[in-house]
């Protein structure tokens, strides 16, 4: 896959250059690299917030609806119609470095937001919000507003919101970069738990090696738009 941007002076930047990546169901896949390496561009491509200049992005459909592996069919997300794209986005949660909560809504209302958009009934929303807040350990903060929460708590709200529609994939864009080391660890523990309990594939981008070491089973290292190394975290970091 390639994504180039044209700059004002006519020059072109290959933000993502010849990337060929396979992420398996259940992976916690880390994409690491310095600022400007192309990580955000890659994650925006995966979410179709950007269109690649060339290439395709294949996702497996119905990966868990019927048991036989041979029934897996791969679909190119670039060919999705509007309804398919909406469904794909619903099944792809996203969390961010600066949480992106709605400050005018309290915790419960923030978590309820995607469910409202999906057209859920009020009673079902209330029940699901309670479940989600239980999962992230914030049941006692329902009525609080984002400004009344710590960074770690805000990220927990954002995680609850991202999980609302039972996603298959969670995309994390530097989700712990604004947090202190202890809070970072607790958020990473939560992500690991979510991956284990719900089988959600997590794709995370980070510039922090510790994040990769702590929770990722696989890692790709990006530099200048290219993947310069990839493999299991063990292979990449523990080789002699
Ligand atoms: P990272 O997330 O690793 O910091 P980015 O994906 O944000 O890297 O950026 C990769 C490269 O693409 C950088 O050189 C950046 O300046 C460039 N870039 C990103 N978005 C745009 C854009 N919308 N227009 C022009 N250049 C961009
Ligand atoms: P949309 O169709 O506009 O992407 P969704 O209802 O599908 O909206 O979004 C699902 C949830 O994911 C929302 O709570 C939203 O806050 C969160 N979200 C935030 N940013 C993004 C994004 N860039 N891509 C997908 N989901 C996002």
From TrEMBL:
<keyword id="KW-0813">Transport</keyword>
<keyword id="KW-1003">Cell membrane</keyword>
<feature type="domain" description="ABC transporter">
    <location>
        <begin position="1"/>
        <end position="240"/>
    </location>
</feature>
<keyword id="KW-0472">Membrane</keyword>
<protein>
    <submittedName>
        <fullName>Methionine ABC transporter ATP-binding protein</fullName>
    </submittedName>
</protein>
<keyword id="KW-0029">Amino-acid transport</keyword>
<keyword id="KW-0547">Nucleotide-binding</keyword>
<keyword id="KW-0067">ATP-binding</keyword>
<dbReference type="GO" id="GO:0016887">
    <property type="term" value="F:ATP hydrolysis activity"/>
</dbReference>
<dbReference type="GO" id="GO:0005524">
    <property type="term" value="F:ATP binding"/>
</dbReference>
<dbReference type="GO" id="GO:0006865">
    <property type="term" value="P:amino acid transport"/>
</dbReference>
<keyword id="KW-1278">Translocase</keyword>
């Amino acid at each position: 896959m390639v994504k180039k941007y044209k700059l004002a002076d006519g020059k072109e930047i290959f933000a993502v250059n010849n990337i060929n990546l396979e992420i398996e169901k259940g992976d916690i896949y880390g994409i690491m690299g310095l600022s400007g390496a192309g990580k955000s561009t890659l994650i925006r491509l995966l979410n179709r917030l950007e269109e690649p200049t060339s290439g395709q992005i294949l996702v497996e459909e119905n990966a868990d609806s019927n048991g036989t592996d041979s029934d897996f069919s791969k679909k190119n997300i670039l060919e999705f119609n509007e309804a398919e794209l909406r469904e794909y986005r619903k099944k792809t949660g996203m969390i961010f470095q600066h949480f992106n909560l709605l400050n005018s809504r309290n915790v419960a209302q923030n978590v309820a937001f995607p469910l409202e958009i999906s057209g859920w009934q009020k009673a079902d929303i209330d029940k699901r919000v309670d479940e989600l807040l239980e999962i992230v350990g914030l049941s006692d903060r329902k009525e609080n507003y984002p400004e009344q929460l710590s960074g770690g708590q805000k990220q927990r709200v954002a995680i609850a919101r991202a999980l609302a529609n039972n996603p298959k994939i969670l995309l994390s864009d530097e989700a712990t970069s604004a947090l202190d080391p202890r809070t970072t660890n607790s958020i990473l523990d939560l992500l690991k738990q979510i991956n284990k309990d719900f089988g959600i594939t997590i794709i995370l981008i980070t510039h922090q090696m510790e994040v990769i070491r702590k929770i990722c089973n696989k890692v790709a290292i990006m530099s200048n738009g290219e993947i310069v190394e990839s493999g299991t975290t063990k292979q990449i970091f523990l080789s002699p």
